[in-house]
Hints:
This protein is 38% helix and 10% strand.
Amino acid sequence: MQNISAVIMMSGTGKLPQKRKVPALPENEKKLYDLIWSKETLGIWTADMKKETGLSNNAVTKALKSLQSKGFIKDVVNIHNKAKKIYMAVEFEPSKEISGGTWYSEGSLDLEFITILREQCRLHVERLKVATLENVWQFIRDSKVFYIDFSLQQIKEIMSAMVLDKELEELISSGVGDFFHIRAGRECYRSLKGRDGPKEGFFSAVPCGVCPRINECSPDGIISPNTCVYYQKWLGLDY
């Protein structure tokens, strides 16, 4: 699992990095580096490199090893097929199609990361008694607990999962009482802690915990969290 403190802050500009100036490279390395760079956040499979460059297996392997040792490229995990080795320039981060998105680390669902984020969301809702999605999102951004710039949609996914797990309830503000700071009619969240007795814990609520085929499940397998309707519903992605 990833070290939370080591997560790199993502740029909110949406701009792609500029290609660095590299020293003169041997012909095969330059050909391969230019190709890998052109694939940006999707990267490229070694078999496709051979097809597009016309280089032999040995030439590609040797050039990749050299480029990686020089710090120009990196290999990344493809959650759909771990045996399919993907390379990209070090300036890029893998696209969601390759990495699985924020919730995955090294090809596996990062439960530790999700747990910490859920706890921070819950604490803020309890602090305000009632909070909007935007309240929680801004709190997470300002707290500096994470070195990653979450989107509003990502926080929505987490909050939706917490509603399904009965940690939070989603309701409409009345504009009075605990809702005084939220305009009447707006959707907001309130903690269910202590309201309806003890709640099911996070890890026991994950559908994977009670799945009889969990040992057969993997990101690139026939049974996979990528295709599991129960897991998608739990994470709040079924909309």
